[in-house]
């Protein structure tokens, strides 16, 4: 008889609300897949009227989210090593080299 590993019936049983949520999610997925044409058409129609959330949704779902870029060179006014020395001086007191 094998020892260890996944055993049937082992572990904490799922709560009723978890089972219901899983069934609801399955139902919603099936409905969306069945009605995806009219849903997408309605979203496109809203986007064409200038609805910014609809435009954003269409673009993010079709092209992907835009990655935010941060220029770290313009964020600091002094080199990193000077910032670290200043921080260590505050923590440990001014050290003479």
Write a short abstract of this structure.
The chain is mainly α and 97 residues long. The protein has helices at residues 16-34, 36-48, 52-62, 80-92.
Notable characteristics:
4 helices
Could you characterize what this model shows?
The mean pLDDT is 84. The protein has four helices and no strands. It has helices at 16-34, 36-48, 52-62, 80-92. The relative contact order is 0.04. The chain is mainly alpha-helical. The chain has a domain at 15-65.
In the predicted model, the low-confidence regions spanning at least 5 consecutive residues are: none
> What is the overall pLDDT average?
84
Please identify the structural class as seen in this structure. Answer: mainly alpha
Strand content: under 5%
Quaternary class: single chain
Portion of residues within helices: 55-70%
Distance between the termini: 70 Å
How many whole angstroms does the radius of gyration measure? 28 Å
The total of helices stands at: 4
Number of DSSP strands?
0
Which of globular, elongated, flat, extended, rod-shaped describes the shape? flat
Q: How many strands, what sense, and barrel or not for the largest sheet?
A: none
N to C succession of SSEs: HHHH
Secondary-structure map with pairings?
Layout lengths: L15 H19 L1 H13 L3 H11 L17 H13 L5
Helix pairs in contact: 2-3
